[in-house]
Amino acid sequence: MDFFNSLIDETLSATAGLEKTSFAYDEGDAWKDVGYNQVVLQRDSAYELDGIGFNLITSASVKDEIIVVGDELKNIGSNRKFARISIVQIDDIAEDQKAYDLIRKIEYVKYHYFPDGYMIRTSSRSHKEVVRVSKAAINSGIEFRNVGNLLISRYKQIKQVRGVKVIFISDPTADFKRLETLAQRNNQITETLNHVMNSVNFDCSTCNLKPVCDEVEGMRELHFKSAANGMG
Ligand code: SF4
Question: Least buried of 22, 146, 162, 190, by fewest C-beta within 10 Å?
Answer without folding.
Answer: 22
